[in-house]
Amino acid sequence: MMLTDITIGQYFPGNSFIHRLDPRTKVIVLLLLIVAIFLLDTPWAYVGLCGFTFLIIRVSGVPLNMMIKSLKPLFWILLFTFLIHLFTTQGDIIWQGWIFSITGQGLKQGVFISIRLVLLILLSSLLTFTTSPIALTDALENLMNPFKRLGLPAHELAMMMTIALRFIPTLLEETDKIMKAQKSRGADFSSGNIVKRLKSLIPILVPLFIGAFRRADELAIAMEARCYRGGANRTRMKVLKIDRIDYVAYSFLAVVLVGLSVLKCSGL
């Protein structure tokens, strides 16, 4: 797997229906869909949810290959999760060999859990693909504002999360450059045992951490030079506003959730 396959934190500019939604709407819709993913437990309900996910990906205009690339970094986790449920879930045995046995319940559970993880990754990636970091920061801060009375630093938390997402692609790009520079000097990261491979990563981690701290220091200096004072009396060039398009999205989501609930309650 190449580091360029990791797409988390990237923004894909566009003017689709999904792009034009208020960022708060997209965050709320994502949270509701995550709840639905964990509550569903019937085959046809998952088919409906998968179809809805594919539909909004097509509507967003984000290339399908970018969405698939977002799954590549977690391929081995998905495979491991599937195998764990496949071989450890008790039930009616459909295959047995040596110390391993596969049950019908294990196969079903492994498929369901894997689908859940895939949908979570796709929907979360779609949020960052269709929402700029600034808009995402404003949305998170606005949604957390009611908790300020409890002492929650809404602005600071939103800013930290967004900066972390924003710098993931930058750090991955820098890691790729360091690895190519080390390989050009004869470094080998793919041969030898595990201990040797871990030792070979030290020449990568040291300059990477130094570069990360340097970027953090430059960002802090730039914010101070612009008299940044956190969320106090902060104004915005674009004020968040729920529009007609957002009500359309909420209505469509309500129809989808009701349909999924009917499929779940009917046992299909």
From TrEMBL:
It is found in: Cell membrane. Keywords: Cell membrane, Membrane, Transmembrane, Transmembrane helix, Transport. It is a multi-pass membrane protein. GO terms for cellular component: plasma membrane. The keyword Coiled coil does not apply. The chain crosses the membrane at residues 27-54, 74-98, 110-130, 150-172, 245-263. Forms a stable energy-coupling factor (ECF) transporter complex composed of 2 membrane-embedded substrate-binding proteins (S component), 2 ATP-binding proteins (A component) and 2 transmembrane proteins (T component). Belongs to the energy-coupling factor EcfT family. This is Energy-coupling factor transporter transmembrane protein EcfT. The gene is ecfT.
